[in-house]
Amino acid sequence: MKIVLRPVGKIDDDVMAELRQRLAEIFGCPIEVVPLITELTQAYDTWRGQYLAGRIIDWLKRGHRAKGEKVLGIVDVDLYAPHLNFVFGQADTASEIAVLSLCRLRQEFYGLPEDRGLFLDRATKEAVHELGHLLHLGHCPDAKCVMHFSNSLDDTDWKQAAFCSRCQPKMIN
Ligand SMILES: [Zn+2]
Ligand SMILES: [Zn+2]
Fold it and tell me: Which of 4, 11, 8, 36 is nearest to 134 (CA)?
């Protein structure tokens, strides 16, 4: 297995480096960072003021990929999906491509003072969660498990960046 992180639009290099290192420790596989150069505005909904997650997944599908590669797009804009106010991320298991938004993981988004450590922890958890979907895991009832569904950031902050003992053996590459 190999994970390809694809920053779409402007993402801080330090954040990408940190995420890459943390994911390498958790998944123990090679991780590559390959930016996707595109105009994010093509996924923008002016009425909602948000970007359509599925469209970004579609763009990522166009890239050439080797077998066993899991692709995680990373954006710093607010994402939505039809019938949802917003999404932290979205995964398409069939194509093994997911996308994650960093936007709502920052304390500043809620008018609170910056907390870089907390932000990176949240980004790691949500990245592991989406990659877990690409490894064919569903949502887990264990609130401490990284595969637990986050309705809000409280859920994200409560869970760990690790898979529980039930999810861990169920992962299928
Ligand atoms: Zn999920
Ligand atoms: Zn679990």
Answer: 4
